[in-house]
Known about the structure:
228 residues, Rossmann fold, Arc Repressor Mutant, subunit A, 2 domains, four-stranded antiparallel beta sheet, 8 helices, elongated
Amino acid sequence: xxxxxxVEDEQHLHQTIKLNLSLEHYEVTxxxxxxxxxxxxxxxxxxxxxxDIMLPEMDGLTLLEHIRIMTxxxxxxxxxAKNEPFDRINGLKKGADDYxxxxxxxxxxxxxxxxxxxxxxxxxxxxxxxxxxxxNKIDFVTNVAFGVDNKKIVLTPKEVMLLKLxxxxxxxxxxxxxxxxxxxxxxxxxNTRTIDNFIMKxxxxxxVNTKEPKHFISVHGxxxxxxx
Length: 228
């Protein structure tokens, strides 16, 4: 059963959409404001997010930006009474997969939902599902790794994003600015010391000698490189 997060604050429309999705055998989770939706997305996997733009607590476009920081994979269908070309283009530029103006026909909504939940989407990580280097193995399907001591490591979403970025750019310098942009997003930069702490954890997980790392290499004052 495909899972959908429905984020719509208009009660009557929300219930109508939810009922029709349920009749099509989708499992629907409801959120009526952007803040609650954000908390759901941090904790659960969804096959689709249906997202109204005008929301209390956090507007839909801001929420969309946060979603794209966390994952590139989940499809997002924007709903909005704003249906001018500029509005549609702006929503798509921010990472939406589709845009449906209000009012709309339920049959059209259901068709778009079907298309978004049944197409094969490219992964955020263009490389292998499993990566092996040294005595380490990372499974990017389950987000589980086995380090130098063969101990199972359950990776956090941020750890996964940073590992993918480094591994997908093997031997290339990834600047701190690039890491902050890709992993944390423009608007929520952490202290750069946060990146150092992530690299230190990776060395603890995957390096035989953390003081003389072979895989996660610092380039002083610039950033980091990954080597198999």
